[in-house]
Amino acid sequence: MAVIAAAALVNLVGNRWVERSATATAAIKIIGIAALAIAGLLAAGASSLGQLVSTSQSAAPEQGWMGFLAGITLCILAYKGFTTLTNQGVDLKAPKRNLGRSIVISIVLCTVLYLLITVAVTSSLSVSEIIEARDYALAEAAEPLFGSWGVGLTVLVAVVATVSGLIASLFAVSKLYDMLRDMGQVPGLPGRREHQSLFITAGLAIVMAALFDVSQIASFGAILYLCMDIAIHYGIVRHLKEEVDPKVWIPWVAIVLDVAVLVPFIILKGTSDPFTLVVTAVVALLIMVSQWIIVRRRSRHESAEDADRH
After folding, report:
1. C-alpha–C-alpha distance, residues 179 and 197, integer Å
2. Which InterPro entries does the UniProt entry name for this protein (predicted)?
């Protein structure tokens, strides 16, 4: 909760601090994770890598393909940060040119780092050891080279990643909230609007952090994010087809892929943690009801204004 408050404070200082902190923390994250992953690969050696290839070709997912697809649902959160780039597009220099480049460069960097981590960990540790190590699996893989320093470096990278992610997310989400409020899509608080969206976003994040653990929050986010993604793509095809002029097959492919990973995740979550699904459903219902109310109020206000004009 203190980290969320600190991230909100950085956003209050201004965009320059957000930009500088994002650049510095991104460099620390990339270098730190790459160093740990490469150390794990060196510690594993060529023989372990060869054994990894032969094992992966014969091994099946522990919970079958449904478990494999459900796991992809959480992996999608690793790439959710690209919405941060799009929400901050207005603040970029030459956004039409740099926004696409930023996304491509980020995807390449993330993919390379994730592959390095996966190969380093799975070539050094068994499945049971990875489960036991959990968040420190990468440090365990790099232990032969870094020793106890590996745990410290992992913690440092995790803290930096958390802080930088919060700073960027609070900035992007508050900007998006401002835009939606101006469009009459979401409610606001009475009084001055300055920094109001930031306070709302940070406050809700603090409540979530106080009431739920990280795995539950990740599950909430994954389900709500994919449902939102499906709704947006369907809305583009159904209501904005003429205005946006999209390649229709792209939204439909996205919808099919979202459903393919979301349904198995919900089924498995329903058997292991039904409470998370209940809370997610309640949150989704509250979002839909609040948006329905605010849109109806906006429609009535616009109708009243039209009547006064005539």
Report:
1. 10
2. AA/rel_permease1 (IPR002293), APC_superfamily (IPR050367)
Chain length of the chain:
310
Give the pLDDT confidence of 140-191 residue by residue, as tens digits: 777 776 777 777 777 788 788 778 778 877 877 888 788 878 777 777 777 6
Two structure tokens written together for 191: 């009084």
Q: Residue written as tokens 């459900």?
A: 70
Who contacts 77 (Cβ-Cβ below 8 Å, separation ≥6)? Answer: 218, 221, 222, 225
CA-based torsion, 96, 102, 108, 110: positive or negative: negative
Rounded CA separation 141/129 (Å): 10
**R_g of the chain, CA atoms, integer Å:** 22
**Which is more confident, 117 or 286?**
286
What single letter denotes the amino acid at residue 296?
Answer: R
User: How far from chain centre, in Å, is Cα 218?
Assistant: 9
Residue type, 106: S
pTM metric for this prediction:
0.76
